[in-house]
User: Fold this.
Amino acid sequence: MSPTTGIIVPHPELASRIESICEELEREDWFSIIPRLWPNVKYVYSIMTGSMQPYLNKLRHYAGNLPLVSADYGSTESWIGVNVEPSSPPEKVTFAVIPTFSYFEFIPLHRSKPQTNDDFIEDDPVPLSQVKIGQEYEIILTTFTGLYRYRLGDVVEVIGFHKKTPKLNFICRRKLILTVNIDKNTEKDLHHANVAKRPGHYVIYWEIKGDVEEKVLGECCREMDASFVDHGYVVSRKTNSIGPLELCIVERGTFKKILEHFIGNGAALSQFKTPRCTSNQVLLRILNVCTMKRFYSTTYG
Assistant:
């Protein structure tokens, strides 16, 4: 854009330089593309916790040696905490609660017994000043904009204090505890579904850009199955109380169809989040109709 007229004008020299850089980067699998195209960048600032954590390795690949700074902890309803140690690796980031953002309460959570259907057993809520290190909680918000004792659904662990305010580590979203038999696996365990058959098993749906050899996909399926280290899951797999993990490769555009389904039923585009775990039969129908290949784990023979 011309600084004097404000009109967009071509820059052949800049375009040629970008093209040359991209040709070189393509041969290197786009390693360090961010600092190569933006040489003055100092760091990458983004959401890198929770459901975004699986993308860290790819982001590091693109960022090269640039520091990765995890954004502060917020939600649609309210900001919650800030990252007071921005130099910490994203995997170890914690968030210090800012008491003036909202009025905060915390529901103490305890892992439920294997035979129960609930993901956690709850105690009575406690105020910000009474939380304990090492305890997991669900956050409750009372906001200045009118929400009263709103259950956020986020499960966090108090890992320390910054001055007198607790520092939180995000664990998972509630009701996303995966369980088929007596196992308890969170989204954090999966990072790494619906019992339609007997024995029940997990079904993972992947939408992949480009072609991948079936041998590689089969190995991915086995590796995912082996990543569930919960004792109940391992025992159940060995005794065939839980069936082999199933990896489904869906056609390009499948998750866009899910977005379109939500938007068509009145959801706001700005608030849409791709479901990580679902038993919604409409969504499952979309996923299954669009499945091109299926792989079953052989981890436990």
User: Anything to note?
Assistant: The longest strand covers residues 150-162. The chain has a mean pLDDT of 85.
